[in-house]
Amino acid sequence: MQYVVLDLEWNGGYSKKAHGYFNEIIEVGAVKIDAAMQVIDHFHMTIRPVVSRKLSGIVTDLTSITAEELEDGTTFSKMVRAFSKWIGDEPTAVLTWSTTDLLVMMENCRFFYGKQEIPFLRYYMDFQAYAQQRMGIEGGQQLGLARAGEMLDIPEDDMSLHRALDDSILTSRVLQKVYERDTFDAAVMTVDDEFYKRITFKTTVISDIDNPLVKRSELVFACPLCGRDMRRRGKWRFHSRAFCAEFVCRGCDKTYTARAQFRLKYEGVEVRKKLTEKVPKEDADTEATATP
Predict the structure, then answer these.
(1) CA-CA distance, 287 to 115, in Å (whole number)?
(2) What is the enclosing helix (H) or strand (E) of 86?
(3) What is the pLDDT at residue 99?
(4) Helices H, strands E: what count in the chain?
(5) How far apart are CA 263 and CA 231, in angstroms?
(6) What pLDDT score does 140 carry?
(7) Four-CA torsion 142, 146, 152, 157, nearest 10 degrees
(8) Which are the contacts of 108, defined by CB distance < 8 A and separation ≥ 6?
(9) 262 membership: H or E segment, kind and range
């Protein structure tokens, strides 16, 4: 299998056809890598926008792309055909730094082709997630590409970041630094109907305590000191995207604030629970008075 690191730049504008805001791809950059992690080719194209010829100030400031530069660009459809031909017939996994570029490519396919399936996509990896795992970055954090390159001592002197080709080159260099065959192969996903359902599924936080997806067994909390089930005092309330309530352990004479968050994901319900001990007011006042 070969690997293609893909990066996009896009311009936002209002579209009647899209019935709202549309992110139109204006630049594509990619690096092709063989099974030995050696770079074998590069791809770069600019695309002449049709939805909004005026580039937003954010895009111009971030990328330095000019409207004049895009006048000589190709169309989205011609880019897809050229990119598919460039990839070739060999089994190929496409990598992007986070799923944002993937979702924008799907958005453009829906706009121009009337369907979200990407013609050249057979295998895919969210390389940002893989790199964070290999670098020991906690899952809740979002590691930027430039920061990843800095942490791995990858020089950027010859690059213009936030341009599609240079960003794909930097990503490929991060790949060469963190690659480990077994974990890498396991992170590559096959693109099928289920993949598209999974990638477009919007995770939601359940806010109704009576929702049948909220299992009552998950609303039970044990004392962290003695291990016995604690008694809830008062009603559950929804606050800061989680159910909260006060719990008391009569054996240890401790009071805790309990939080339980239920997130509906494609795979099912994910539950996050947390206990925080409540400090009696007189103890808190004493501690505050004693603080220099």
Answers:
(1) 62
(2) helix 76-87
(3) 96
(4) 10, 11
(5) 24
(6) 67
(7) 180
(8) 23, 24, 25, 76
(9) strand 254-265
Tokens 């992110």 found at: 23
Q: Buried (b) or exposed (e) across 197-211, using 16+ Cβ within 10 A?
A: eebeeeeeebeebee
Secondary structure element (H or E) that encloses residue 193, with its range: helix 193-200
Return the DSSP state at 56: P
Query: Using the 8-state DSSP alphabet, how is residue 89 labeled?
Result: S
**Residue tagged 């067994």 (tokens):** 217
In the prediction, which pLDDT does 289 show?
42
Task: Find the farthest-apart pair of alpha carbons in the chain and give their distance in angstroms, rounded.
Answer: 76
- Which pLDDT value is given to residue 291? 43
Are residues 135 and 148 in contact, defined by beta-carbon separation less than 8 angstroms?
Answer: yes
| Residue range 235-285, pLDDT digits in tens | 999 999 999 999 999 999 999 999 999 999 999 999 999 999 988 766 545
Q: What contacts 241, CB < 8 A, 6 or more positions away?
A: 205, 207, 261
Amino acid at 222: A
CA end-to-end span of the chain? 63
Residues 213-230, buried b or exposed e (16+ Cβ, 10 A)?
ebeeeebebebeeeeeeb
- Is residue 267 within 8 A of residue 239, CB to CB? The reply is no
Q: pLDDT tens digits for 38-87?
A: 999 999 999 999 998 788 888 888 888 888 889 999 999 999 999 999 99
User: Does the predicted TM-score (pTM) go above 0.85?
Assistant: no
